[in-house]
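so the lab meeting is tmrw and i was supposed to have these ready like two days ago... anyway. pasting both below. for each one the top line is the aa sequence and the line under it is the structure tokens. i havent really looked at them closely yet so no promises
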Amino acid sequence: MRGVAADRQATPAERLRFALALAAGKGTGAAGRLLNVGGGTSLPGAVARRIDPLVLQKVASASTARKAMITGSNGKTTTCRMLAAIARNVGVSVAQNRTGSNLLHGVTSVAVREADMRGRMDAGLLLLEVDEATMRRAVPEVVPDVILVTNIFRDQLDRFGELYAMARMLEAAVETLPPRAAAVLNGDDPLVASLARHAVARRLYYGLRVPDAGTDVPEHAADTIRCVRCLHALDYRRVYLSHLGDYECPGCGSRRPDLDVAVTEVRSSPTGGTDATIETPAGTMRVHVPLPGLHNVYNTAAALAGAFALETLDPASAQSALAGLRPAFGRLEEIKADGRLIILSFVKNPTSYNATLRMILQRPGPKHVLAAHSNTPVDGEDFAWLWDVDLEDLVPDLTSLVVSGTRAEEVALRLKYAGADPARMRVIPGREAALDAALARVPPDEPLYILAGYTPMREFRRIMQRRGWVPPFWEE
């Protein structure tokens, strides 16, 4: 496809509209960064699209960059960071929405920021984290070379609908890919592995093949435990995370696909993080990732599979890139706060919450917790999923507890039923007051754990930014 800058059929009015959209978007982003009010993560795209609704499509079509879109319920941001690091380590310049602004305006903001005034980008890879429900609109505009789907968990049912509805939306996106493109799919997720069996694009599957990790049966909050084809209950040889694992259907015989990228060994590193052995089409790799948990092992396998699909996988370079990673903001992010330690964790559904709780409970010492959830359109309004979070496991270690957000009372009720003592719980809806109250209850040598949904997490970081505890998130 050719961009507007080179399209002789574009009218002068269309070219002017495109140029104005780019100029207005760039100006909005610069103003936001100058005034310290957002960093140009979403508003520039909204402004540019208001002037020219085709601005993303025009920039993408004018670019010679490879284009990759990463979507799924959990792991998008971390997988993007990993894949970007791998690509940069082999000399590929990357344009990405690294702050996680993954709705259509955020995706458009990347294109506006990275393009020159003729709509051309210099980047070798346009790497986009994309909200699951946004894929149906973003894919036709970007026309990616690679779509990577991490997993499908029960998440924001009021926005996405039930699991099979989400799978159908993602399948429709994958089926639009041309033969030269690739779909990188989590083979351990029965729903993801079943996507687009009739798509013309090539498919690459990744997953775990580690006999001494995980459990024998899915956890109680697991989502997809029935065969996608015949709805018979699946048999699992091994379960690694929620419903992710090595499965087979005794009814129709369908099973986990053969893995192109397979993790064969996982162990905790004595220096922190995780060591893993991973088989790839480019050879077997032994990697160290300074991030704990099996969920980050999945993210690593996904990034390596994505790098292979994009032809940027050099084993030695990838090992170096992964070893130098830092957590994405809000992913067990450690923040120094005037001599105190805050550990900020983004949690948004049962699987992410339970994985985070496991990581926290592995840490020594008492647990001081600030839990905050809100019911904005971005966060989702349905909080029934809180009852599938294993908060009962946290309560015995709780030393202090503050609850905040627009749904503070509902979260407090859930924690009460988990066994938390209401007399020792403080409910403070305001985020800044809640943060101060929580910190006041924490001794100087013990950390405060903040468990927060998307909007409260951003609100807490803005407070911390004003106090000089963290830089603006767009500078990290």
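ok protien two:
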Amino acid sequence: MHKVFNRLLFALSSAGVLAGVGSALFYALPEKAIPPAFPPAKDPYPTGIYADGIIESAQSHGANVNLYPEVPGVVRAILVAEGQRVPKGTPLLVIDDSVQRATVEQDHAQAMAARAVLAELRAEPRKETLEVSVAQVIAARASLRTARDSWHKQYRSWRLDPKSVSKDALDSAHNAVRVARGNLLVARRQLQLTRAGAWVYDIQNQERQAQALEQAYASADALLAKYVLRAPADSVVLAVNAAVGGYLSPQGVYDTYTQGFDPAIVLGHVDRGDLQLRCYVDEVLIPRLPPSEKLTGTMFVQGTTQGIPLEFLRVQPYVTPKIELSNERLERVDLRVLPLIFRFRPPPNLDVYPGQLVDVYLGGEAEIASKPLLDPPDAGT
């Protein structure tokens, strides 16, 4: 029984060893490579330089126009749709302006009130006020005449009989004349002041206050216009990232997926004849670039093998960190690129759009003559 058990154990061990060796041999066999989703682009130059590229609208100064509001607020209305052509000055987006509009109305009312006070000062003396001053002078003269008559009567009585009028009554009558004379002098001075009108310094001070309030109103009204986002030039709406009811800040619209800020609206051109390419050449490859007058290039849309000739326009003479295409740095070293701008005309059988990433090969005029730009028709899509 013991021998049978040992034989069985030996047989199982041998089978395990054979299974392990077989598994090792099976998994050691090389796997067949997965074919690419589309054939890679071929370098049309003998010594071509590869660069990443992005299609953009043809702009004389930069790429597409990214619009950001100058004031924050809740989006009240979006007046355009993506793909719509808009002339210069067209309202694109409206931000809630209820608070700012109330501020403008308040500033306007204050400016109008200050102007009214200034007009009042310039119109002085008022006819009714002048008549009151004249009447006060007449009344003061009458009071003075009454006081003098009373004093003269008491004085003549005192001269005839000193006991007929007390000394105290005579002094009171004399003082009443003095008071009436002073009141007349005050009334005359008040009449002169009324006729002179407003003081020149009061007018100047009110003029400055009116100007300050009018400037505050103009500033508030100009800020109110910022609550409407308008097209800065004739263009096409490429993207609308804002939504009605969403909050919009001068930094743009917060994207919960990318956790970054996008422009509220992107404008550009999508005409097939108004597209250009911006490619980025690594700084280590810059010395290999041909001279500008001989520089040419070929663009390959990802997913195709059809080459599109490029016409060199200009170089952006500033080497920047390599973050333009992804907006973030993934390298652990400082890699920098030089932007080059080309013009191209898309072929009729291929649609391209601004923002599309492409592969670019750069070379010289002499190199391109040695190899055709386009592959045979059956090689592409």
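from a quick look at the 2nd one: The radius of gyration is 47 Å. The first helix runs from residue 2 to 28. will dig more after coffe
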